[in-house]
Amino acid sequence: MSVDVLLGLQWGDEGKGKVVDVLTPEYDVITRFQGGPNAGHTLEFEGKKFVLHNIPSGIFQGDKINVIGNGVVLDPIIFKEEIDGLKKQGIDLSNNLFISKKAHLILPTHRILDAASEAAKGKTKIGSTLKGIGPTYMDKTGRNGIRVGDILSGFDEKYASLKEKHMKLIDMYGFDYNMEEYEKGLKEGIETLKQFTLIDSEHELNRYLRGGQSILAEGAQGTLLDIDFGSYPYVTSSNTVCAGACIGMGISPRNIGEVYGIFKAYCTRVGSGPFPTELFDEDGEKMRENGNEFGSTTGRPRRCGWLDLVALKYSVMINGVTQLIMTKGDVLGCFETIKIATAYKTDEGIISEFPFEIPENLEPVYKEMPGWHCDLTNVKSEKDFPKELKNYIKFIEDELEVPVTIVSVGPDREQTIVRK
Fold first, then answer.
1. More confident call, 256 vs 297
2. Catalytic residue among 13, 21, 283, 308
3. CA-closest candidate to residue 10, choices 276, 247, 233
4. pLDDT tens, residue by residue, 80-92
5. For residue 316, which phi and psi values (nearest 5 degrees)?
6. Residue 266, helix vs strand vs coil
7. Which one of the listed residues 41, 53, 110, 166 is annotated catalytic?
8. Among the listed residues 315, 323, 263, 259, the one whose alpha carbon sits nearest the alpha carbon of residue 3
9. Mean pLDDT of 111-135
10. Structure confidence by residue, pLDDT tens digits, 233-261
């Protein structure tokens, strides 16, 4: 058996959670492989709405095995809040959620360091979610981190030592904070973690593969936020690309099967950083309103713009995408004309490859296409797609040389159309 990977191809918020939920019945195991509670995967079905931060999006489909992999960073406080919230909805994960011992813990001082560092940047801040993600990954690579497995033995001593180091750094920033407020709920969060089965996930996942069980790896954020290949330095702190699944799960690259790449029919971004097709006009505001483009983790309004094929081709290449999934086609139903960026105009001329850095004076080169100008949210079959939507999808497929196999026309589980 192989591991299929599902990941975002833009700056995150592409609708990964919903699609994982839709695909889960085809798999035995769902695994998160990177990121932390800076991710917000929104799922809607049966009139209910759920936002997941740490937990894989396969938890709502029967008794599937769900694994938080070693590449994830986990905040015990947020984890407990998430578990408690799901329990109130009648969802008990005690038997089918497993957590890697090698996943690193986000500590209260990581969140303080995140806030202090972002405040010190002033106008150059990157738009951090202030969840402590960056400082936690810094401790991981700096070999100072505390892992989930450490809560089983000697946690208090390790935490006290790392806390002392962090407080010296925070003092250098001159940042004002209330440690008691930040630490509230930490002890209870650790105890909640202990109630779950903590595993050597690399061994377990490879055992599942040898036993013929199918695995879907769920990415967080998006390709253009990858620490190596994204729009640096306005990126996250982990590898969000397909290769990151191997590191974040402990599986061999030869075990990768299908690579599902998810993209919106347009583009959005939260936080700072370059965004070539960003709109500052009425069209951008329409996208934001129609698409309810507000961060599911931060609540911040998302920046909106037309689809960027230069960036999308880059993401398809980096990830080796085998199937494309287009979401939010319904949001563009109000436009008479739709634009797609096919190249960039720079001082050096027209370029069609995603550059090392995106200069401020870059201008997108657009192809204009007629919009479908209708409501797609009640469409149940591809045969009912308006011809303008079919042409839009075909243009994207021709440019990317990868088929669009799923089209989402609304936030609900049922508003998902698989193309033949």
1. 256
2. 13
3. 276
4. 999 999 999 888 8
5. -60, -40
6. coil
7. 41
8. 259
9. 87
10. 999 999 999 999 999 999 999 999 999 99
